[in-house]
Design a protein that fits this description.
208 residues; alpha/beta; three-stranded parallel β-sheet; globular; binds 3-phosphoglyceric acid
Length: 208
């Protein structure tokens, strides 16, 4: 099994995806892989999200498919059973954090404050999702965490655009950025695979 560091090494930008219909999964996976992206976060917000993990892996076997919007122990179990290769949570309750630490799958627990980051670090996590990045303080906030929390790296997500991503990626404590801009809900439901591939290509050229 890959470690979270293996996964972060393979990605500067992680597209955050919502798949509303299962037949969107394969062409979406192919477009993202064709654009050069290696790691994706599929959100657990639609009825077919769990089935979409396998459909995306079948269509693009080299993609590393993670499950996002993991909010409770049941979500962890179902995501792993569905084949998710890593887990992402929007925030962390004490119970969720301990279940994530116990489940053995690579994970990015969600945090938005120094205290939450320190709690997750104590639970064994040194890489975290910083969410919602822009409303929670953005670049300035993350830069401020770098001094007192030197052992922690973040994947900021929430409100980040293609134009803002490079600045985030230039921070020493940012391992990658996440965002829905690469394949928005409208682009996915409209089957706009060429535009998604073009966005993926631009994102894949960004370096952390
Ligand atoms: C999410 O989990 O919804 C992500 O943070 C997406 O945020 P964005 O749509 O602002 O990129």
């Amino acid at each position: 099994m890959k470690t979270i560091n293996d996964i972060l090494d393979a990605a500067s930008v992680i597209p955050v995806l919502e798949v509303a219909a299962l037949d969107q999964a394969a062409p979406l996976a192919k477009a993202l892989a064709a654009g050069g992206l290696r790691v994706i976060e599929l959100t657990l917000r639609t009825d077919c999200a769990l089935d979409a993990v396998k459909a995306m892996k079948d269509a693009a076997p080299d993609l590393i498919v993670g499950m996002g919007t993991v909010r409770n122990v049941g979500d962890i179990e179902q995501s792993i059973a569905a084949g998710a290769e890593f887990l992402v949570t929007p925030g962390t309750s004490a119970r969720l954090l301990s279940a994530l630490a116990d489940c053995g799958a690579p994970a990015l627990p969600g945090v938005a404050t120094a205290s939450e980051a320190m709690t997750a670090y104590e639970a064994g996590f040194a890489a975290m999702k910083f969410f919602p990045a822009e409303p929670a303080g953005g670049l300035a906030y993350l830069k401020s965490l770098g001094g007192p929390l030197p052992g922690i790296v973040f994947c900021p997500t929430g409100g980040i655009s293609a134009d803002k991503a490079p600045e985030y990626l230039s921070l020493a404590n940012v391992a990658c950025v996440g965002g829905s801009w690469i394949a928005t809900k409208a682009m996915v439901s409209g089957g706009d695979w060429a535009a998604i591939e073009a966005n993926a290509r631009r994102a894949a050229s960004m370096k952390s």
